[in-house]
Inverse folding.
């Protein structure tokens, strides 16, 4: 099964049949989410208008964690099945995950100022999200530092696997430590505790972000595969020139 | 004695700008990311095509 998923032909099949439909669904979900968020969701009795930041902040944070988890699985899969496409998937996802992490941190900070009276606190949830951003940045810089792609991907995969430990820390930080950040109100035992008028736009925004991330991921994989093909082509051309020159 | 609500209303007016800032920055990040990926992809496709045409 994993071998099938890691075939380049499977990627091309996905790219061909899902790119347009996923793009349209992402646009639809995000349009609906932000329409509901701005015109149909109730205001929080204390936070008033600023509660609308939640519809960007929370799905971005979920996606930041989901994408890192996906990259970690790709790294593990790459070691187990020794398939280079797994590492390509991980590399492709990294800047997308970093963008979601930055959005989550920045929007959280903007939300924090009017609600907590400060842009930033060294609270466990915020700090562990910042660590996630550093892990993403570290991985991106690390894989770019090596000239040999295969070696870079393998070494970077170690970093990804080590960083996986941060995901449960982010998730449970609000329960393990006393934090200024509020505890979970959607994924918790006993079901979501937020109003359904807020839950729907949140769900649509999360679905839209997921599909948007998927579309960008497909395009990033294509870019990396094109870059590999270009390198091979250039080597072939230089060999031809060398052969004809001698 | 009536509570002084001026500070509350001043904040309430500012709330919209915090929401606008958060959405604006998110849109900007997504825009930059999408444009970077698409332009790099297009550049690579062009280079590959010209190399194959040689």
């Amino acid at each position: 099964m994993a071998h099938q998923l890691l075939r380049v032909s499977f990627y091309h099949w996905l790219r061909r049949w899902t790119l347009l439909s996923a793009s349209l669904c992402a646009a639809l979900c995000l349009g609906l989410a932000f329409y509901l968020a701005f015109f149909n969701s109730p205001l929080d009795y204390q936070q008033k208008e600023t509660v609308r930041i939640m519809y960007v902040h929370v799905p971005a944070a979920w996606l930041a964690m989901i994408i890192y988890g996906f990259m970690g699985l790709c790294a593990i899969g790459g070691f187990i099945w020794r398939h280079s496409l797994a590492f390509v998937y991980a590399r492709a996802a990294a800047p997308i995950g970093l963008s979601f992490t930055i959005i989550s941190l920045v929007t959280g900070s903007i939300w924090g100022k009017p609600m907590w009276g400060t842009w930033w606190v060294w609270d466990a949830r915020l700090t562990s999200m910042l660590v996630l951003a550093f892990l993403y940045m570290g991985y991106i810089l690390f894989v770019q530092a090596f000239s040999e792609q295969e070696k870079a991907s393998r070494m970077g995969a170690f970093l990804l696997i080590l960083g996986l430990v941060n995901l449960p820390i982010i998730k449970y930080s609000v329960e393990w430590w006393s934090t200024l950040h509020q505890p979970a109100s959607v994924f918790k035992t006993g079901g979501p505790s937020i109003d359904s008028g807020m839950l729907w736009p949140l769900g649509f925004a999360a679905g839209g972000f997921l599909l948007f991330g998927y579309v960008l991921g497909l395009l990033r994989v294509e870019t990396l595969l094109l870059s590999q093909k270009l390198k091979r082509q250039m080597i072939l051309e230089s060999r031809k020139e060398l052969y004809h020159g001698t | 004695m009536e509570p002084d609500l001026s500070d509350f209303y001043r904040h309430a007016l500012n709330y919209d700008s915090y929401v606008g800032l958060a959405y604006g920055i998110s849109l900007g990040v997504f825009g930059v990311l999408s444009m970077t990926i698409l332009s790099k992809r297009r550049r690579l496709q062009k280079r590959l095509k010209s190399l194959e045409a040689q």
